[in-house]
Amino acid sequence: MINARKKISWLLVILWMTLIFYLSHQPVAKSNKLSTGITEKLIEVVERIDSDKDFNLGRVNHIIRKNAHFFAYLILGILVINGLKSSGITGLKSIGLGILVCVLYAISDEVHQLFVPGRGGQVKDVFIDSAGSITGIIAYKMINKNKESAQNTMQEKK
What we know:
This protein has helices at residues 2-24, 28-49, 57-86, 91-113, 123-157. By secondary structure, the chain is mostly helical. It has one domain.
């Protein structure tokens, strides 16, 4: 059972990294078309709620793209720290190793984009990705700590 959990945890990490790679490998025109489509839909929804708002599509699209970096790596951070936990690596060691894995992947992703038509690697994106990963790792650790604390309280009451 533990071995299956460990394999599934790391398989999810690999699948998520593959998705990030796939999205990063899209030429700029295709990538921008996808994010612009999402941005247009979000603006439509917001304008239905508050028709007095006037949005700059380019600015909102830029914000959406940077948030996509943050949240993609937030999920990666959660998946990596979970994989480490399932492998028996816990405590500060897991936090440090989790951050290292995510930051190195963010760097490799930006280097990868240097070879994609119209794309470019940006140090700023590595920082955004890293912040997302760290946020995911910390959130996972806090939720797990609260969960374990609640379980211990339940056992003490028995």
